[in-house]
Amino acid sequence: MNEAAERYHDLLFHLLDTPVLAITLSLAAYFAGSAVFRLLRQPAWCPAVLLAASLLAAMLALFSISYEDYSRGASWLTVLLGPATVALGVPLYQQLHHIRAVWRQILITLPLAATFAALYAVMLAKWLGATPEVVASIAPKSVTAPIALGITEQIGGSVSMMMGGLLITGAATVFFVELLAPRLNIKDERIIGFVLGINGHAIGTVRAFEISEIAGAFASLGMSLTGVFTAIWLPFVWTILKL
Amino acid sequence: MLRGFLSLTLFLLIGESISFLLELPVNGGVVGMLLLTLWLMITGHIDADLAAASQKLISALVFLIMPGIVGVFFLSEEFTAQWTTVGIALILGTLLSVLTTFGLMRRCTPIEKNIKDNE
Fold first, then answer.
1. pTM for the full model?
2. CA–CA gap between residue B18 and residue B59 (Å, rounded)
């Protein structure tokens, strides 16, 4: 029995030599997570990626693979986030005509909305006594993940905590938008989409596409603009305030 | 599609270089994205390879961020102790910012009018 355990350890050590094991586990968890998500009839409060990540964490525990070993292999996947961020320029360009049509209004509302999205959480966290690293991790909470990763790197937060923050923010945005829109008597799907995109990044945008195409288009617009705007001003403001 | 991937990595490298040389606090990917948008505005069209490559990558975005999310389950003790604080700050902060955004959009009546004009 002891010998079998030893052999398993050697095998694991051998398999972790290349990133193939980490990539295979990630892919398997991704598709299993999507299947469970459909099985639960696509709950708005629990995004598919959270299910997939939980399954992956369970698999790592089951095969007794440490997170360090896993993420070393998975860095082969995360390196693709660089070109994927650049790729966001294509839909941004495709939506330029939406921006042109209402650019004045966007110019007024977007910087304010994106600033408040970060400011409220940062102030609350500071007031509740969070450490500077935690505050830095949740500052980009409304920014789409590939851009938020870059911001976190710049201002010195923890990537894992930032990712957790993005998940909570995305789920909370969908919940609150659906709760508040009827009560505030807002029926315009373009406004609902824009609000979902500004506050709830990709998770809000996915929800907006479920409402309608136009809500989805405005959500991706809100998401891209919030991402770009926050990526530019947040690191600058952060450096200035730190100095 | 590979040709499109080459364009994306080229823009990433240019963005990375600009960010490094000018010591910008913005990361290379974001600079590359803005440069790509600018380039598309200048040329006025998206070529098929670039469209294919970026569509594939964007559809895989959720998968690509998964390794980062898994890390949430393996956070060190010092962080787990702060989850209540973080949860309250994020949920309350999101409620406030959703309210603020709705308020801004409603107050900005021209936006509704303008959007309706587009119909």
1. 0.78
2. 27
